[in-house]
Every structure is written in structure tokens, then in C-alpha cells.
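Entry 14. Structure prediction run on the chain below.
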Amino acid sequence: MSILEVDLSFLFLVAVILIWFMIAYQFALTVFGYINFIKSFREKRILDAGVYDLPSCTIMIPAHNEAKVIGATVQSMLELNYPAHKLRILVINDGSADATASIVQNFASRDRRVELFTVPPGEGGRGKSRALNLGLKHVKSEVVAIYDADNTPDPEALRYLVAQLKTHKELGGVIGKFRTVNKRATLLTRFINIETLSFQSILQAGRWQMHGISTLPGTNFVMWTHLIRSLEGWDEEALTEDSELSIRIYEMGYKIKYIPYAVTYEQEPQEWKVWVRQRMRWVRGNNYVIAKFFKVLPKFKSRRLAFDILYTLSLYYVFFAAILISDILFIVSGLNLVSIALPGPYTLVWIFAFFLFILEILLAISFDSEDSLQSIGLIIVMYFTYCQFWIYVILKAFYVEYIKKEKRIWDKTVRFDAKPGNP
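Output returned:
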């Protein structure tokens, strides 16, 4: 046996272990996510039957050149089933050069719940965290809710979130589900729809049910105002401000709960170039969070929390390594360039792993009645295209971050003209 064959056999074994660890753990999370899905029906019925003295709440909506969507978003906020005298909708006009301000001002002139806060000249356009910190200074309510400028939540979404926050004192935040409003627009948005539903069913619902842990998304969540102030707001260096803030909330001894029945709808990228920029921002933001908290994770009192955070933050790279190594080995082996001198039924192992991956995703999206024969076909195509494209995103993000050392700049996702109604 040559040294090359030994090395390749070792790499092959590493790839198998990585992929099977991911699939097995993700499958366990999927099962726990399904348990959470079943339990949520009972929880939702209790909330629907109860009467709650809801606290005052300010919805903060950071908006930078959002004229295409902000009207539909503000209108949906006004339609929320929440006591009008306790609700304030604060739109943060963050250096917009379009009609964002005038659209919001038109709503404000007709409904006192809506307020426009314009970031002072020269201070705008510095990212979502900066806009939220400026807006936070004008919040007087007990609870703050965060929604992106393209979001149209269900009428009951905010009430469900706040009721959970008030009922369970150990919670520092409560998050809901986001769904893709333009999922039928392109093949890409169909892929993203499957990805986002799977992520929430597995890594939000599953983690919450298994570990009592979930992570703030960028939208559709609430938290106590006193908590975010005690944490001194959002980290303005973080491109993924939600992940960074989540860890600090847990460090303070609070929990973040996921409830799948508080639903909002949002736009997703319809073009690959837009998707790449958005995902690169996520990866670079993730790199920042890893660098910031890696040394303090061993000091966490909860080892389960430390493991969960480390696994979740490193998920991009575990997935990247497994896919890249396996792709290389399959190509060189298929072309008979090298041989893998490692005994075992690995072809069957890989086939079984692939079908388990499909089953896992299919079960995860079944929570939202998205499982169908068409979805099975999309998942198969998605594995060989969309999933593989993540290799390019991670490599490019690594190059930009560590080779070119470009400054981290918030890259706003391109919007499309909003259409009334949800899918």
C-alpha cells in the first residue's frame, strides 16, 4: 500500500465520520423538532384561550432604502392583534435615499402608533446593529420587538411572542418562525424555502426541545428592554448581530425560546449573486462571533450550552470539510486516478447516508406541509447544486476575510416589489 493510498483512505474515513456525525445528530434534532411541533399545538391552544395583561411593546424596524417593501410591512404591523395603546411602531430611517421616509411619514400622519425616526446625517448606512442601537435610545416600552423591513407577520404573531415572554420569567427573548413569501419566484427561492424551513425545524425547534437552546434570528423576535440595555445594545462590529447577541443573553443566565406558531413572511434573494453576497455576510459574521467567544466558551457553566454554541457556530465548516473532502475523493476515485485501500461497504454507506439526508429534510419541512413528490425532487437537485455551492461561498468568504482582509461592511439584501398577501 502506498503512502498516497493510506493518506486518501484516512481522508475518506474522516469524511465518512464527519458526514455521519452531522446526519445522525441532525436527525436526532429533527425528531426532537417534531416533538416540539406536536407540543406547540397544545401550547398555542392555551395561549388562544388565555387572557393576558400584555406589556407595552415597541416594534423597531431598521430601514435603509426600503421603499419597495416598507408600506406593506407597516400596514401588516398595524393589523397586529395587540392592544393599540400599548403598541408603538418605530421605523428607523437609516440613511435612505429613496421614498422610505415619506411612505412611513404618510402612515404616521394617519395613525399615532407609527413613528419615524431618521438617523442624523452622516451617521446612517452603517449597518443594522448601528441603526438598532440608535433606535433603542427612543424606546420607552417594557418589551422591544425586532422585524426586518420586508416582513409581514401574521396578526397573532406578536401577541404569541410577548405572551410567552411574560409567562416564563427565565426567558430573555422569544423567537418565531419566518417563511419565504416569494418561494415560487425562482428555483433558487424554492431551494431557500426548503433550507430555511429545515433550519428552523432542526436547529431551532430541535435544539430548543433537546437542549432548551435556540438562537435569535434577524427578525420576528421579542426581548425585555431592560435586558438589551443591560447588555449595552447590539455589537456594531458583528455582521450577524443576532448570533452574537444570543450568546450574551445566555451568558446573562436567560434563555431564548422558539415558538413555531408565531409566523412572519419575508423576501429571499431571487438571484444567485444576491444570495452569494448575503451568505458571505453570514459566514464572515459567523467568523467574527467565533473569534469573539471561542476563548470564553470553556468558562460557560453549562457544558451543554458550550457544546451547542460551538457546534452551531462551526456548522459551516464541518459541512464544508465533509462535502469538499468527499467530492474530491469521489472524483479521483471515479476517474481511477487513485484507489481507496480501505475495506468496507462504503458505497452502500454513502447511498444510505444520502437517503437519510433526504428523509431528514422531508420530515423537517413536513411541519409546514411542504412535503410532496415535487419537494423530494427539489431536495435531490438541491444536494448536488445548492449544497455544493456553499463550498464557493465559504472559500470566497475566507479569502475576503483573511487574505484580502476587507473591512466588514453591512451588505443590504436586494428587495423586490412587495405583493399583498402571504402564500
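The first strand starts at residue 57 and ends at 63.
Filed with the rest of this week's runs.
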